[in-house]
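Q: How would the structure tokens look for this protein?
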Amino acid sequence: MGQVAAPRAERRAVERTPTTLRGKVFPGALDCVLSDYTRRGARLLFEGAAPSQPRLVVVVWSSGLAFEVDIRWREGRELGVRFLSSRDLRRPAPPYLAAAQAAWRKRRPRITRRKLASSPVILQKRRRLVRELTPTAE
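A: Here is the predicted structure in token form.
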């Protein structure tokens, strides 16, 4: 008969929150998924091999929050990291975060208000909404 592995003892002082947030790890701009996090750290899952540096910068791609982290444990394609500090990449960042900030800012094209207002798709939707909301005389 096969032997069943005993569950790991839960040693966290703070409860984990499961997520599927996309992230990037710098240096190297490696894609990862934050599979769970606490206010003190996170579990990162990589498609390929996990980075080997002892300290990294993890950027939550949807929000632009960058965390300086150190690695607490490794298991295959997963890393457990502890947050050391955080920075919002929408604000001016120190030079060591320049590559991460530049990559995050290029993640999607910026559309100015003028271009957005002149977009035919936006105008059509607005006109259709006005027609739907305007009472008709019957």
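Residues 25 and 58 are 5 Å apart (CA to CA).

The mean pLDDT is 81.

Upvote if useful.
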